[in-house]
Amino acid sequence: MKIGLRGIERMVVQSQDLASVFGNIGADVVLTHRVVLLMEQAPRNAIEKCVADKLMNVGTMINIRHLAATPLGSKVWAEAYLKCVDGRRMLFDVVAYDEFEKIAEGENEQLLVSVHGFLDREQRKIGKTKSI
Fold this sequence. Notes:
Elements: E1 6-12, H1 32-47, E2 55-66, E3 75-86, E4 89-98, E5 102-114, H2 115-128
Antiparallel strand pairs: 1-3, 2-5, 3-4, 4-5
């Protein structure tokens, strides 16, 4: 992975992306959780062609500030810039915009892991799952 890799993810705000759908009555603007998802996907897009076959990347940290509301139907995009690589860990600056302004900014950390090891750990947890 090289410092400076960039990725982008785009979307148009749909009704299922609205804060009002999740309990914020009258807030027909994009939900912060949806902005976070967008800001997680942009780093993945930056490195997808660089990840070796038996590896995958997983998000391990995201820290953002949601700065502005974005209404239904707006075009939104997130941009990611790889600023630090430390072994298997990659740290990205992430910024999201709508058609009018910057709507969020922050950092996202991705970690390269073995697909086999990741799936093996998941299966062990599934075998130990208890009812809540």
